[in-house]
Amino acid sequence: MATELPSATQETASTVQSKPKMTVVLAGPRGFCAGVERAIAIVEKALERYGAPVYVRHEIVHNRHVVESLEEKGAVFVEELDEVPDDAHVIFSAHGVPKAVPAHAEERQLDYLDATCPLVSKVHREAERHHAAGQQIILVGHEGHPEVIGTMGQLPDGAVLLVEDVAQANALEVDAPENLAFITQTTLSVDDTAAIVARLKERFPAIGGPKQEDICYATTNRQEAVKAIAGECDAMLVVGAPNSSNSMRLVEVAETVGCKKARLVQKAADIEWEWLDGVRTLGLTAGASAPELLVQQVIQACRDRFDLDIRESSVTREDVHFKLPRQLAAE
Predict the structure, then answer these.
(1) Phi, psi of 308 (to 5 degrees)
(2) Separation in Å, CA 277 to CA 15, 268, 281, 283, 304
């Protein structure tokens, strides 16, 4: 007697049942912020208006997927203006640049667009106001980060003292304790920055600063979203780039507030599946420069291996939008 073969439906059901179950909790907000959206739009619209190539000094944002997609459209990324031909169009990245960079562009008569995030530009203006008032400035930030280089480069050498942690705040020596002001990098850990600022205020009670630290709304929201789900997750994946400060802080925040393990991945192909052995609840988020497409690809890769239950968890809704430079505004 012939053996009856299982139907396609039975095979599918059997395959699903053989997959381990996993709940994926999607943190919200996640991914692109208004500053990143604006920076990418500036490159895209410049390409539409001027044609390829358009040169971009440094990565427009810290994400290889974004950079490579813009390269396919005709953007050329360079490290310094010396690599940009005469009469070319050039764009400065969202992280901001020292004043010497646009000055150099003007000397060469290059046509340039500034894609600096408006919230970073706000910190630049604060630094200039403090300096004009004769105050010594303390910048809370990470040495070598493009945003920190750009902010310190708004003023003469020595005008800004960099502090990276509480230990440096304890050891800091200043010229005039009664005449200080602080500013902060926009992509830091909210909690770590609060601790550093608190120590500075203890040591220097007269120190001035913004009404609230300059950490941007998007960085704050993404960290709060991670805090909201970390305690219920066995593991957390953060989609982002290793040179993205806000993405790396999300990994740290997850671990600090109770997630057993957290890891950064740039794309689905980077996931080490053995690392997820035994994980039944996975938190998933993305840094402010990571596109949602990469998050969805991670979800699909998980779906291929697990019987997924997907749940959204959102702490707030974002509706911030930044205008494009007037050169690219609709005519």
Answers:
(1) -90, 140
(2) 19, 16, 11, 14, 15
Q: Does the global pTM surpass 0.90?
A: yes
CA 33/CA 62 separation, integer angstroms:
13
Q: Which residues of 191-224 are buried (b: 16+ CB within 10 A; e: fewer)?
A: ebbeebbebbeeebeebebeeebbbbbbbbbbbe
Report whether the peptide linkage leading into residue 29 is cis, meaning its omega lies within 30 degrees of zero: yes
Q: What domains appear along the chain, each with residue ranges and CATH number?
A: 20-32+217-314 (3.40.1010.20), 34-117 (3.40.50.11270), 119-203 (3.40.1010.20)
* 245 vs 249: CA distance, rounded Å: 6
C-alpha 281/C-alpha 181 separation (Å) is 44
pLDDT digits (tens, 9 = 90+) for 211-225: 777 899 999 999 999
**Does residue 208 contact residue 178 with C-beta atoms inside 8 Å?**
no
Burial label for 59, CB within 10 Å (0-12, 13-18, 19+), is buried
| Rounded (to 5) percent helix, strand, coil in the chain | 45, 20, 40
Measured between alpha carbons, how far is 256 from 250 in angstroms, rounded to an integer?
10
- 331 part of the active site: no
Report the distance separating Cα 127 and Cα 68, nearest Å.
Answer: 34
Shortest CA distance to 289 belongs to which of 233, 328, 236, 250?
250
pLDDT digits (tens, 9 = 90+) for 108-147: 999 999 999 999 999 999 999 999 999 999 999 999 999 9
**Chain centroid, CA 137 distance in Å:** 24
Cα 10 from Cα 12, distance rounded (Å): 5
CB neighbours of residue 115 within 10 Å? 27
**Catalytic option among 59, 126, 147, 213:** 147
- Separation in Å, CA 102 to CA 93, 107, 303: 12, 9, 47
